[in-house]
Amino acid sequence: MKNHSSLMSILTRLMIILIGFSASCDKRNPPPVLPPTQVPVSSSQERYITRITANPDTIYADYNITYSIISVEVKDGEGFGVFNQMVKFKTNLGRVLTDVHTDSSGIARTTFWDDGDQGTATISAIVRNYDASGDTLVWQDSTAINVEIKPIPPIKSVNIKLPSLNDPYLMSVMQTINVIAIPINQDDQQVPNNTLVTFECTKGRFVDSQDNEIGTSVVVATFNGRATVRYNSWTDATTMPGADNAFVTAKVGNASDTKEIIIKPGRPANIDLKTYVRVNDQLIEADTSSVNSPNWIFVKAGLTDIYNNACSYQPVKFTTDLGSFLNTTQTVTQNTQTDGVASVRFTPGLSAGAASIKASANGDTLFAQTIFMVTSSELYSLDFTQQGQINLNVANTGGLQSAILRVKLRDINGNLIDVPQKVYFKIANTNAPQGANLNGYPQQDSVEVISNGGEAQVSINSGTDSGIVKIQASWVNSDCTRYIYALKTNIVIHSGPPVPGGIVSFVSGFDSGDNLGGGLWRVQCGAIVKDMYNNPVDYQTSVWFSIINNPGCEIIAQSYVGNTNADGDSTEGIAYTYINYDGTLTYQTITIRANCGDDPYGTPIFGDTDCILPLNAPEAYMEIQPAVLMFDNNQTSYEYTDTYFALTDGQGCPVKDAQVMLLPLDGGHCIQNPNGVYDPSSPPNEWWMLLTDETGFAKGRVAFKAGECIPPIEGIPQPTPMRIRGTLMDGLLNREVTVTLILFPGQAPW
Q1: How confident is the model at residue 676 (pLDDT cuts 50, 70, 90)?
Q2: What is the C-alpha to C-alpha distance for residues 555 and 559, in angstroms, rounded to an integer?
Q3: CB of 493 within 8 A of CB of 465?
Q4: DSSP, residue by residue, 704-730
């Protein structure tokens, strides 16, 4: 086509030249008016239809059920596909989409379909190119192709194909498969594309490519002789007795095909366990029976999938901890029947109690449990179910304040008594912790409880005191001829946690320390720790010790309540530790802080206590100055002697602030001011309390008068001994000195 168009262009140009030449040679006529010279067209402006196809080239007169795709390829003079080129299509028969633009490859596609007529349709394609103004045609090309429109041949048969040849076809619930229908026409040929096939199903659903439900009846067009639809079995299995299978049908006109489908349930997801008692040949759902009952007992386990379909022919394992199955074993495996139920006979035998019956499937990943009560009626014994110690805390301290006590009522074989009985509970110890009670009743009351299922229970509640509680459970028959009881003695009510103000520290007393050498002493100290009700706190409550005002002392910080003291003894509510201190600090006051951590709100729990460091291994001596007092015969004034009481600890360290009592034993008077003068008008002082100074000395003064002397005998003065005692108040350490009084008949020789 390209060569033909080029030749025509050349011939046209030659004719114009010849006409012009002839006119110019004829002088009689004026030269003709020539058209403007045509500008040559570039290769990129040339347009050629290089190819036209029809797919298919035969359709049927079925009013657009079948159709043909007409494709045209457009290239320029350089052989490149032209993008966005308008192609105009025309047909002499049927219908076609007329104006179509080429794509990026230079391809324009349109659709041709019938209009009910039969025959040969000629579809023409025309391409034109204009200059930039859009007014002048610079190039064009055209071509055509034929499509045959035939009468519709009737459908002879439809054949359904499933993923396998099994008949009926087996599926699981919510499984999706492709269902293919192949229609064959009367000519034994596959039908053309877009032949409509109707699919129908009695169960399940047809779904789209995203598995969205689209119904139980859909219409699908054929492609390459086949119509395909996605079928989902949905949630209802067909394996239950009396259930109909599913059917899938494909129809085209009067031709059809049907396939049968069995829908299996999914994997067991639910298990339902029930017990039945056969009474008069009827199974009655029940969960209790008596020992030696003549009625048969059956256990049934039903398996269903997540859609509640019964799961048949699945193994179920039954177990029991009381009685047996089939009179032989406590473990047996039975298969479910078509209704999804597995059944086994249960025999309780002579044992009463609560039979825990379990059923499991799916490799024990799916299980259910039920309790079947085997009952008895004649009481023989009572026993508390809790053998171990029960620990409670005093009320309102944040711990466990109550517990349920249970007693079992049994017959002579140890079977639980199912008939309700009156059981009486009471606190058995006389001095039970204050406030402890049963079911809120006063402590001294007995509490009546009616048993249920062979068990009676009561609540033990703590009060404000810690200690041990003993509980008695008893039963008596109606004529009071039989009496049965049980006693629980290991119920402990523990104190609450420490509280601020409930911690008091202490230091051991006089001469209780150990000599560490170098002037150091070690004494025992500790803290008494109590709860909000003044109960000693529990054993091993941690206590951290510190001294907050005396750097000359050292305390072992870590301790706990109930640890042993220096003698190897443990005391309830007390934590012991040790202080090391220099002997020069004896009798000094230190503040010991005992800390028990924080309360739940972050508030520190501690107690500060002022304690005095004790004296250890004291050594003392006493002296007086002067040792002799002399008096005139008529003297009325007093004479004085100064006393010196020196005190050290066992390592020679002087002891300050020790209390020393000065006591004249035979006469004399102590003076309040050691450097003062005795005033007879002041109240008499038979003793006086002194304190040692930094050097360990306590200084006192005693006044004597002449009247206390032995009178001279025949003019000879008689010595009068007067004892003065100094007593260290700690340990009652005594030292004595003697002052001698001398009365002269005249003037004393001083």
Answers
A1: confident
A2: 11
A3: yes
A4: E-GGGSPPPBTTB---EEEEEEEEETG
